[in-house]
Design brief:
This protein is mainly α. It is about 65% helix and about 0% strand. One of its GO terms (molecular function) is transcription cis-regulatory region binding.
Length: about 200
């Protein structure tokens, strides 16, 4: 008889990973503490040891996970801004199930640190009004991804023939969506430069 493998210890990272999987495959509305506990093969109450505020803490953690991006500074503020926007878009597209949280939850924890880092990078590279620019860039990225997800039909598949949303890491995305994003980003950066 094969030896039984010990259970994988429960951790905040495992909880977030399982919650992301549920949200991305079934939608945020289907993410309950009980369903999450079942996916992790633990009692739902065990999750509260890692997230004492329960579902509120879980929602905050998911929003933070997809919005706490990092990008290395570029040669110019425009290069830095492009790198941040591309990294943000990739993170949001990877987890369409929590896009609504990213759009509605204010940056906290690592996400707030990332926003501050981006602002400092742009200011250090010579961009005046860097904080306003970061707000505009974040709004653009979040809106662009929301439109992409909406157009993909991910939220409301209408039939069996619909292709599921595939994030870029698994073959999703299109050249047209990429070109639209880059065109809009170029226009926004030009506007910020003129301002």
């Amino acid at each position: 008889m094969p030896a039984k493998r010990p259970p994988v210890p429960l951790s905040r990272e495992r909880i977030i990973e399982a919650a992301l999987h549920i949200a991305d495959s079934q939608g945020l509305r289907r993410l309950t503490m009980r369903r999450l506990g079942d996916a992790l093969q633990v009692e739902a109450m065990a999750i509260y040891h890692h997230l004492p505020r329960g579902k509120d803490a879980l929602m905050d953690a998911l929003a933070e996970h997809v919005t706490a991006v990092h990008a290395e500074p570029g040669e110019s503020w425009q290069d830095s801004a492009r790198a941040w926007c591309r990294a943000s878009r990739a993170a949001l597209r990877e987890h369409p199930g929590v896009l609504a949280l990213a759009l509605t939850k204010p940056p906290k924890g690592r996400a707030a640190i990332a926003v501050r880092e981006q602002t400092e990078q742009l200011a250090d590279a010579g961009l005046a009004e860097a904080a306003q620019a970061v707000r505009a860039l974040r709004a653009y990225v979040f809106g662009a991804v929301a439109v992409e997800v909406q157009q993909s039909g991910w939220a409301e598949p209408s039939g069996e023939d619909d292709e599921p949303w595939l994030p870029p890491s698994r073959g999703g995305g299109s050249a047209a969506a990429d070109a639209d994003f880059e065109r809009g980003l170029t226009a926004l950066l030009a506007g910020l430069n003129a301002g």
